[in-house]
Design brief:
The protein has about 325 residues and is of the alpha/beta class. The protein folds into two domains: about 200 residues, Rossmann fold; about 110 residues, Pre-mRNA cleavage complex subunit Clp1, C-terminal domain (Elongation Factor Tu (Ef-tu), domain 3, Beta Barrel), CATH 2.40.30. Strands 4-3-2-5-1-6-7 form a seven-stranded mixed beta sheet, with helices on both faces. The protein starts with a helix and ends in a 5-residue tail after the last strand. Bound molecules: adenosine-5'-triphosphate and magnesium ion (MG). Magnesium ion binds next to helix 2. It comes from Bugula neritina. One of its GO terms (biological process) is tRNA splicing, via endonucleolytic cleavage and ligation. This is CLP1.
Length: about 325
């Protein structure tokens, strides 16, 4: 805790300096392998700042075990009050983007593009909110730090223009980042805290499932989601990413990377049952919607092929606020 307090004190100094000069405060990326306490450290640093009446932006890019919304998404939140140990971050409207998978490697091109869009939105917000700008950002990442995972860390650092990277428990990652990052980026290495608990695959799956349940029902079952029918004709469902094809079958000049972010319309079928879908806001057209914040999530609980309609579970009553739905790999069976 003393180390964490010292890091916080150093960040506070940078915030004070930023306030004096009306410039941007510290932007911190937290990186390291799985189960080293990245999310916990992010939460501690965000909380300490919020207690001093700063309004840091917490960015969670961990699509599997993120804390802002449900798995398969990433997002950001202006934190005005500290995270509560029982209820999580206090009710504030987060900025949430669709990704659709539990791991970045499932569609790396999309992951990269969504991160770029999110960073632009945050830069934009910071330019209109001087307190948030001075308070800076704390960016939590996922534990994939090798090969393409490492490249994505570099991408995150560059688009968010981070100036501090905290590496937990990984000498090699620390050395690589020192080699590859520009000089103005300070890289700090911290030891893994002795208390960190290793989580099994099963624990992670259970925790993902309970995040979806909490989204619909609330942590204390204080929410009542709605179930209603939606006709097939009322919605357009897309999956992002074309199935992988050998290069010889691709159109001349097309690389698979473009395929990874291609929108594929989905025909309603039984296969969609139990899938969580992201609900795009507004009527901007599918292509634009993918890189804009989503307005929420629904689950398809039944597919009635005979009457061409879905039964859905939704946090808000009918009608749906938009027409475009994006499919995810996340499934949720509403069994209490
Ligand atoms: N100092 C600590 N004392 C006790 N428990 C801790 C401590 N730090 C973390 N934990 C617990 O250890 C587990 C893993 O920590 P955390 O989620 O912060 O790791 P992570 O690096 O973010 O993992 P992931 O790679 O899965 O995102 C959590 O259940 C957390 O509550
Ligand atoms: Mg984590």
């Amino acid at each position: 805790m003393i180390t964490y307090m010292n890091v916080h004190a150093a960040l506070e100094q940078l915030r004070d300096q930023a306030a004096e000069k009306s410039i941007r405060g510290p932007r911190v990326m937290i990186a390291g392998p799985v189960d080293v306490g990245k999310s916990t450290l992010s939460r501690i640093l965000v909380n300490y700042a919020a207690r001093l009446e700063r309004i840091p932006i917490f960015v969670d890019l961990d699509v599997g075990q993120g804390e802002i919304s449900i798995p398969g998404s990433m997002g950001a939140l202006i934190v005005q009050r500290p995270h509560d140990i029982e209820t999580g971050y206090p009710q504030a409207i987060p900025l949430v983007y669709h990704f659709g998978h539990k791991a970045p490697g499932d569609n790396l091109s999309l992951y990269t593009k969504v991160i770029s869009s999110l960073s632009q939105t945050i830069n934009d917000r910071c330019s209109h909110n001087s307190n948030a700008n001075v308070s800076g950002c704390i960016i939590n990442t996922c534990g994939w730090i090798k090969d393409a995972g490492y490249k994505s860390l570099i991408h995150i650092a560059s688009v968010f223009e981070v100036n501090i990277i905290i590496v937990i428990d990984q000498e090699r990652l620390y050395t690589e980042l020192r080699r590859d990052m520009p000089d103005f980026v300070k890289i700090i290495q911290l030891q893994k805290s002795g208390g960190v608990v290793n989580r099994t695959r099963q624990t992670r799956a259970t925790s993902r499932d309970s995040r979806v349940r909490n989204y619909f029902y609330g942590i204390d079952k204080e929410l009542s989601p709605h179930c209603f029918y939606v006709n097939f004709s009322e919605v357009s469902i897309y999956k992002i990413g074309a199935p992988e094809l050998p290069a010889s079958l691709l159109p001349l000049g097309m690389v698979m990377e473009q395929g990874e972010t291609k929108l594929m319309p989905m025909v309603p079928s039984e296969a969609l049952r139990y899938h969580v879908l992201s609900l795009c806001a507004g009527e901007r057209g599918a292509e634009k919607s993918v890189y804009s914040p989503v307005s929420g999530f629904i689950v398809i609980t039944e597919v009635d092929m005979e009457r061409s309609r879905f039964m859905i579970l939704s946090p808000a009553p009918a009608p749906l606020p938009g027409k475009i739905l994006l499919d995810t790999d996340i499934t949720f069976m509403d069994i209490k």
